[in-house]
Structures are given as structure tokens and as C-alpha cells.
Amino acid sequence: MLVLTLTTYAMGKLGYGGITIVLFLLATVLLKGVFIIREFMELRGVSFLWRAIMYGWLWLVTIVIGITYIISS
Hints:
Layout: H1 2-14, H2 19-40, H3 48-72
Helix pairs in contact: 1-2, 2-3
């Protein structure tokens, strides 16, 4: 996760932009979110309902951000 965080920080610091970069950053956010949900929140072994709620919220927010960026471009 540290490498993913440093990668996204470096992209912002270097001023990269465009749809490809934004999609890469959103994929990074999804991957980090999955790690946090599974490991930090320890939702690996809980019922399907809780995992569906957490992963659903993660996907929903990420997709809405992506759509908003694409529409505003």
C-alpha cells in the first residue's frame, strides 16, 4: 500500500493529468480500499451482507467520481 500511495503522490506532484491517469488513480483507490476493508477492518470472514455493503459503497463512490470526471472533461 505504501508503494501505491507514493505512486499516486508522485503523479500529483509531477502534474500528470488526463483520463488515463485518473483511471489509474481510481484503480489504485479501489485496490487500496479492498486492502483496507479486508485487512484493517477485518471483514474477511464476516457475513456476505457486511462485505457487500462495504465493497458496494467503495465501488459506488469510485464509479461516481469517475463518471463525474469524464462528464466534466
